[in-house]
Specification:
This protein is of the alpha/beta class. It is 39% helix and 15% strand. The chain has a seven-stranded mixed β-sheet, sandwiched between helices.
Length: 774
């Protein structure tokens, strides 16, 4: 599921749903989008007359939304374990197929065959200096009938970790991220030949396993510390919503920084006759066994570790002293899996457009869970079904969208965004020709708007959210979020929060967040270059503690997620209005001044990143030359100095500086031309409108590179990508940014002009659209 905000993004790579850098935090913190409320007559993409008609359609759409529908759908679909390969997962797909057809949609199920290993045996024992056998089981909790209905469920495990029967000393590696291994190296501690134990958060789980392997470990345990989502945060389930002692976070550890989808068929659809890699040759599959465990199972293991006391920032909330090791704790880990292929079921429903059938709006949410999945993903899936039913009501009244609508309920998102990726790869050429928008959601709960995506869609979403009523206040969801940002930036808040608060108090648009990975938008935006939005609500729930566990049940959701499903209706309104406006607009509702401002912010950040890295290297060099680390250190607790950093050259950013300057001109010219044309009723003939839509539809694709990003050609977007060392967290202008961060200066110099060329191509197409309007 997509990460919801910075505070809870550790649920997903810790986003989707966003490991942000300083300037991104300034512009994109919490992945929010808000704007000043537009004049009542304004509606991007519509003439004044058509705008009035559209508002009437949206009112009829809203009146057909019913919270009781969403409640019933979540309860039904979460009534049994719902992971890939279960009979209930297939039954849910068939149920949705029937619903779509009853509402007037042309619907079908598209099936793919994917590698989906499931555990045959998982075991973990502490064998020295004492003995302990891990439970590796989540018992039922009082008051939650679903939690006892796990006969068809799977035990806690990490899909796409390797099999193994190993014994080794334990080393505690904190979050198991790159800086943690640097800290170990300074203490002279190696994980070579050891089994590491890392806590969740701080980074995506797959990177914990990958980095452990790259540092020589033979196995990886990942546990949920109560400091992060257990009793330190609040009362545990069932008294409160947070993770109980035996709760375990399942999850995929496939290397989705390389590609998403079926690990054996990168770049092609996983049909029955597709050419497949061998399991041994699949780069996304981990090379060592990995296992998630509860904090109840982790505590005896951590307590048995000796060696140096862990640094302050490494300590969780268990009632023990955290040590690093290695040993004397030694564990035996055994993982054995069934590495067979299993079918998955994507439910695809269409309504053909009445006037522009070759322009597609694609809407998606997944339906598979790790166990029951009431919150993740069925809460979001229910909002999508609610939209589809309301659109069906409009159909029966005689309305029909101008453009084609395609609603998709994806299977196998949890193991690696597989259902959406395989469908996108199967239909890649059609989608790149016809898709004008992809709208994603994942889970949904009480709280505040959270959105990210293509910045050409900011104004559209701003206009929509100004008209959606917040059920807990008297204002719009946009006004409530604006108030929250102002409060968050008050007093002793950090600089980023203060800047957001200042922007929230103004009348300007605030940009939506950039998207990394972690949910089904990934293949559409970063592989195919389709303009994308990801929208959901959250922040007032207590669901993080039961993420990917047996306790993500209907009973938990109706207590701690969205008890009245009021925010489910709000999500349906928000996404539904985006879909309807895009479907019926006279011309595609895009605006570009915000794009230029955001891209300019990314470039300023690159300048600052290089300068800061240069200053840091110089200061570190001076400290090393003066032996300051040795002189200031405690000789009874030896910690060596950091490694010397290479000199930072001065990079020639001129190509990007010039491209952004041109983008500012081109964006303003289009937005001004559009505003003038809209004032006179968008007086374009049908052929001109089709041509304009074609120019706008292909804009996002100009930001792609055919060769793909270095080392991972499946990802092709030059402005947005998940970070190689963040997992789901976004990196903007990734080829240049990551090269600077990792000191790959030749790569940075190579991709500055390549990225600039892509922005120039974007400008050229935008200039053609402006000329057409004139």
């Amino acid at each position: 599921m997509l990460t919801r905000n910075i505070a809870s993004s550790e649920r997903r790579a810790m986003a989707s749903r966003l490991a942000v850098t300083t300037l991104q935090a300034t512009c994109l913190l919490a992945c929010v989008t808000i704007a000043a409320e537009p004049p009542p007559s304004a509606m991007l993409g519509f003439s004044a007359a058509h705008a009035s008609d559209e508002r009437a359609i949206e009112q009829r759409f809203d009146s057909a939304l019913d919270a009781s529908d969403q409640r019933a759908w979540v309860q039904r679909m979460a009534s049994a374990p719902n992971q890939v390969g279960t009979a209930h997962d297939k039954a849910n797909a068939e149920f949705m197929l029937e619903q779509f057809r009853s509402w007037g949609w042309d619907a079908q199920i598209e099936t793919f065959s994917i590698l989906y290993p499931t555990p045959k045996l998982v075991a973990l024992q502490l064998v020295a200096p004492t003995h302990f056998t891990a439970k590796l089981h989540e018992p039922a909790v009082p008051g939650d009938r679903s939690s006892a209905n796990t006969a068809t469920g799977l035990p806690p495990y990490n899909v796409y970790g390797a099999d193994g029967d190993i014994t080794g000393e334990l080393v505690y590696v904190n979050f198991g991220m790159p800086d943690d291994y640097k800290a170990l190296a300074r203490r002279g501690i190696s994980v070579q030949g050891k089994i590491v134990i890392a806590r969740y958060r701080g980074g995506w789980r797959g990177l914990k396993v990958k980095l452990a392997y790259e540092h020589g470990a033979i196995g990886c345990l990942i546990y949920s510390d109560p400091h992060d989502d257990g009793y330190f945060m609040g009362d545990t389930y069932p008294r409160g919503g947070w993770r109980p002692p035996d709760g375990v976070q399942r999850g995929s550890v496939a290397d989705i920084t390389l590609y998403s989808g079926d690990p054996l068929t990168p770049g092609v659809a996983a049909t029955a006759d597709a050419k497949r890699l061998s399991i041994a040759d699949a780069p996304a599959i981990m090379k060592i066994p990995a296992l998630p465990i509860s904090y109840a199972d982790a505590q005896p293991l951590l307590a048995a570790i000796a060696g140096p006391v862990a640094p302050t920032g490494w300590r969780g909330a268990l009632p023990i002293t955290y040590h690093i090791g290695p040993g004397p704790a030694k564990v035996h880990l055994h993982v054995e899996s069934d590495w067979s292929q299993k079918p998955i079921y994507d439910v695809i429903a269409r309504i053909r457009g009445s006037e522009l059938p070759d322009e597609w709006i694609v809407r998606g949410n997944h339906h598979d869970g790790w166990v029951f999945g009431a919150w993740d993903p069925l809460s979001g899936n229910a909002t999508m079904l609610s939209e589809a039913k309301a659109i069906g009501t409009l159909l029966k009244s005689g309305w029909r969208p101008r453009r084609t609508l395609i609603y998709c309920s994806w299977d196998a998102e949890e193991p690696g965004l597989i259902g959406s990726t395989e469908w996108a790869e199967m239909h890649a050429q059609e989608l790149q020709r016809h898709a004008v928008l992809y709208v994603n959601s994942d889970s949904n709960v009480r709280g505040f708007l959270e959105a990210g995506g293509s910045h050409s869609l900011e104004r559209l979403l701003n206009e929509v959210t100004a008209g959606v009523h917040d059920p807990e206040t008297d204002g719009s969801v946009q006004a409530r979020l604006r108030a929250k940002l102002r409060v968050d930036g008050f007093g002793s808040a950090n600089d980023e929060a203060k800047k957001l608060a200042e922007a929230a108090a103004s009348s300007a648009d605030l940009p939506i967040g950039a998207l990394g990975s972690g949910s089904d938008f990934t293949p559409f935006l970063q592989h195919l270059g389709i303009a994308t939005l990801s929208i959901e609500y959250g922040g007032e729930d207590d669901d993080d503690g039961i993420y990917h566990s047996d306790y993500d049940t209907f009973e938990h959701y109706v207590r701690f997620g969205d008890p009245t499903f009021a925010y489910g209706v709000v999500e349906s309104q928000t996404v539904g209005h985006v879909v309807l406006r895009t479907a019926d607009a006279d011309v595609l509702p895009m605006q570009f001044t915000d794009v230029a401002d955001v891209f300019d912010g990314y470039l300023k950040e690159l300048h600052k990143l290089a300068d800061d890295k240069r200053v840091h290297a110089e200061r570190l060099g001076a400290l090393l030359a003066a032996h300051a680390f040795e002189l200031s250190g405690d000789p009874t607790r030896p910690v060596g100095p950091p490694a010397q950093e290479s000199d930072v050259p001065y990079l020639d950013f001129a190509p990007l500086d010039n491209a952004i300057t041109r983008l500012k001109r081109s964006a303003k010219a289009y937005d001004d031309a559009y505003a003038r044309a809209a004032g006179t009723g968008l007086l374009l003939n049908d052929a001109q409108r089709v041509q304009l839509d074609q120019l706008l539809q292909g804009l996002e694709q100009t930001l792609m590179t055919e060769d793909g990003l270095p080392g991972r050609p499946w990802f092709r977007h030059l402005l947005y990508a998940p970070g190689m060392l963040t997992g789901y967290g976004v990196k903007t202008m990734p080829t240049v940014r990551e090269a600077i961060e990792e000191g790959r200066w030749d790569q940075a110099s190579q991709f500055i002009p390549i990225t600039a060329h892509a922005i120039d191509a974007y400008c050229q197409r935008l200039d053609a659209a402006t000329a057409l309007i004139h």
